[in-house]
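pasting input
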Amino acid sequence: MSEEKIGFFERLKNGLTKTRNNIVNSIDSVFSGFKTIDDDFYEELEEILVMGDIGIKATDQIITELKKEVKQRHIKEPADCRSILINTIKEQMKVDQDAYAFENKTSVILIVGVNGVGKTTTIGKLASIYKAQGKKVLIAAADTFRAAASEQLEEWADRAGVDIITGKEGSDPASVIFDAVNAAKARKTDVLLCDTAGRLHNKKNLMEELKKIDRIIEREFPDAYKESLVVLDGATGQNALMQAREFKDATNITGIVLTKMDGTAKGGIAVAIQSELQVPVKYIGVGEKINDLQKFDPDDFVDALFDRSQEKE
Amino acid sequence: MAFESLTDKLQSVFKNLRSKGRLTEEDVKAALKEVKMALLEADVNFKVVKQFVKTVEERAIGQDVMNGLNPGQMVVKIVNEELTALMGSETTEIAFQPGKSITVIMMCGLQGAGKTTTTAKIAGKLKLKGKKSLLVACDVYRPAAIKQLQINGEKQDVEVFALPDSKEPVTIAKEAVAYAEKNGHNIVILDTAGRLHIDEDMMQELQNIKEHVTVHQTLLVVDAMTGQDAVNIAKEFNEKIGLDGVVLTKMDGDSRGGAALSVKAVTGKPIIYIGMGEKLSDLEQFYPDRMAGRILGMGDVLSLIEKVQADVDVDKEKQMAAKLKKGKFDFEDYLESMNQMKKMGGLASILGMMPGMGSKMGDIESMVDENQLKRMEAIVLSMTPAERQNPKLLNPGRKHRIAKGAGVDISVVNRFIKQFEQSQKMMKQLPGMMGGIGKKGRGGFPGRLNFPF
């Protein structure tokens, strides 16, 4: 476990170097550039957080919180604001203790999200993580829309050494799920990972299709623990909130997978989502290799964003 | 809703502005504060927003507005103009090599931006212009990427070049160009693997391709939902690889494309195409001025008119107008109008271009169930030609037969026929209006919306 943690930290550190440099440098310049805590100071702080894709609403909440603290504790030094800010964000980012309960039960994990966020890759990574834990894994390739989606997932299943149920391109994804659920029951599978086609959250019919898939899982496999994860591209701006909201409506998502966090300069959207929807980020993708999917650690994440001692060079 | 679309936001701001007879400096400032927040919520890059608001404020508080007869409209105009200027004021096309020379286009971008899909879409678009494209599978990393391109190429009826055994994008690109020369292709589109802009090795790979193959056009594919980072991505790709243009994808989502505003401003590179859907035909030319209009809630009326003109068969249109004028609109015409509609990308896509509708796409799609349209079509197709031309023939026996043929309940058939009769009556009352539009030669479009759906 500690090994995993170090690995995560290193990866995150490398992945987030750019983010950290941006945010930390600008925040540092704010903290040191201002002699007093005044409106200009808060305004600049607000700008920096907005630029980090944290979102206006979440930023406002954070600043309000910060102002309250500053007043209560009679803080005069801008530099002291720093640790308060970090703690405030950490507080917002907490993950419940039972967030990963599904890992130890017979479970169905439904993966949803818009196009191109990395759903299929995430499933490939999850499959090999659970396989390595000695679990019996089955994948349902219910993206029957995109050209060669099944082939892509078959390749991942092959790499992870797990079984996969596929359907023909253009066939009803719900029928693939139906078959997979029954196969999972018959084979006594521990984890059934369901891939779905990427869909924009504002396409009503496609969201209805998702609800149908969700209903089939509920109906056919009521004993299984159901986990519904929405995959969000870490580079996405405020639209990620809309996505999370709509997918929450459709499949009652229980967690978020934040992908491509190794390249983007913005990790802020995670804060915005947590603050607005109270849906925790559970996994974070920091690379293309099969091991580059890690459990989300809010403390590490926020520290990596703000802690200067982690800065290289 | 916490995050309304940019259009909605600006519309509500300007509604307040319009309601006042005269603008004070505070009014302008208050409005622009809203504009700023709206733009930020739309993910426009912060620095771009700051500059934008400053420019508008300088112009708006100046005498331009104070001397104007309608100050509110003046601000709208200035915002619109500045927005257009920001996005580039001209539509750009891909620059082709003269004569029969091959134009090599390289697609690049982050993972999941939509490069492979866009590659096939562009090939389809160029095919309409009489170009013979060769798609080249240079993504040697992602599982099944080659297969995806091959399937899409097949759908577009465009040849795909791949070397499944090679892991060398440079080799693949070189051989593809040689192959194109031999086989008479005049466009070569290189579909490269997705990569992060900070991944030095992968960026080097693109540079290598450019060193060994003459690439005439390098296009960056950017997801329209990208946040503040869009600018960094475009900047890095531009500096390291050298870009000629940008394709914005997933514009059919409800992100109002703040990235579109930023990318051009920061890199100076034009946006050439926008991806508007998952179908391979859903790639549109990017019109900066129209886009500005759409963002400001003025609707993309120009695009709409053009689409109608390009897709609607003029002769059939005249016949239809004549029939409408006489109030003789039968089920054959209904089918015909449905087909025209499909050609234009479906009702939802058309409504989306109407003023003030752009942001409500979700609502529209729930309103217009395409499946229901299909059901209606099935009902009409289950009628005999005589029945189609003369709806009065439809007695209960015939209706039952039609219901069976269409696989729907008899009540659905009844309701549909009733609706049809009602709209037929309505149209009889409208011949004056229809005729007027016909004379103006605008393709009679507004009449379309009165058709029974």
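fyi The two ends of chain B are 30 Å apart (CA to CA).
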